[in-house]
Amino acid sequence: MKVLIASAEAVPYAKVGGMADVVGSLPAALRREGLDARVIMPGYGFIDHASNEVESLFDFEFSHRLGVSQISLYASEYQGVPFYQVQSPPYFGQEGDVYGEWNWDMARFIHFNQALMATLHELEARAGWFPDCLHVNDWHTSLLPFMIRAHGGDGVWARLASVLSIHNIAYQGNHAGGFLWHAGVLGRHHPELAALGLTDNLLGIGIAYSDVISTVSPRYAEEIKYSYAGYELAPLIEARAADLRGILNGLDCDRWDPATDSELASNYDAGCFVSGRPPNKRHLQSFARLPVRADTALVGVVSRLAAQKGFDMALPALRNILGARDVQLVALGAGDSEIEHAFLQLDQDFGDMARAFLQFDGALSQQIYAGCDIFLMPSHFEPCGMGQMMAMRYGALPLVRETGGLADTVVNFDDGDADVGVGFVFQWQEAQAVEGTLNWALDVYEQKPEAWRRMQERAMRMDFSWRKSAGEYIELYELARMKAMSRVA
Q1: CB 438 within 8 A of CB 399
Q2: CATH T-level fold of 273-460
Q3: Staple partner for 335: which of 108, 183, 305, 340, CB 3.0–4.6 Å?
């Protein structure tokens, strides 16, 4: 089976969120299972062609309502996976960031959907390659299932199946009506879209017209059927419930491996973490200018500093605990200015106990996973979450709220000898719940070291590879192909 994955982001070329990690690692797992999986994405201006060995394939002219665009298709390879990059100035090929202003991004990504359809025509004509299934991701590429249906005709286009993956339903590409009309996109007359007033919602269009839908954890697939998590798209999700699957994201376990990670002060695995992890904690404490103490619990944070992530609950809890207990905090992230300021204030008020790095730093994030004892991830909602998986793989125990993929991956400590559990879980969305659970975790760290080590080993041995999830995606692609073929018949 030939599968083309379309995305606005993909590691190692362009990353803002977790979608990039998924698109950068899933296709390699699919190819190991025998699929011809490839990726297509925008050819951003900041991608260094020389260092990434990106080569030109061909150029062509694309005529559309707004005029004629010059399309340049480039190709590269990552982990044995062919990647295509589409440049079409001024929309793509000159920018310094993945995303920009809302109104320009609307125009850019609508154009990308149109240009991608034209590129598929050219790929078939010039290279004889055409996918059996098009796998689109989030609102940026969710026009494509509709455009496939609107294409009409027969042959390969009539049989082309579509799968939509929802990584975060909070970002929908809504209010796109004027941009769609301006770009010459045909009217969307799906009855449920019209009834719900969603004909100008790009993610809603993808949900309505795709053959099957996936999201990034089983729990999140259930949550988005309700308005508290699915927002205005919840009724549409409920209507497509029979075609919805929750498939847990996997990790690139070769990349995220404490046994081989070159950024660590000491490498280790689940068999030798008791001796292998402490040098990383000492290194992190020293780097963060904190007292180097093995007996003091170190809480780590690696996150976008956004409202979704629950820091409105965590920051008051951290302030109280730093003022009352022997504990250390190292936080890494950037985002909302108010949250950044609050972490910086902790740094200033508890200078010998807390340190905040207000930036994105891949190497430091790996050092935090390997050096902290407790990994704090108190999200209000979390479609899947990768941080808790990375933390567990590196032997840090996560403290999370019971939501989305956090609920699917973190089993709560049994408050005994750790016959069960890999972390600490709370439910209520309030600061007292974070504070109480963090106090509980600190008590276990200080009073039950053997139970703590049992959870660490269990967490490190959990299988977060793509193997199982890749098989579930293959089943999804096959289901989508059956639905597409039934339309032709």
Answers
A1: yes
A2: Rossmann fold (3.40.50)
A3: 305
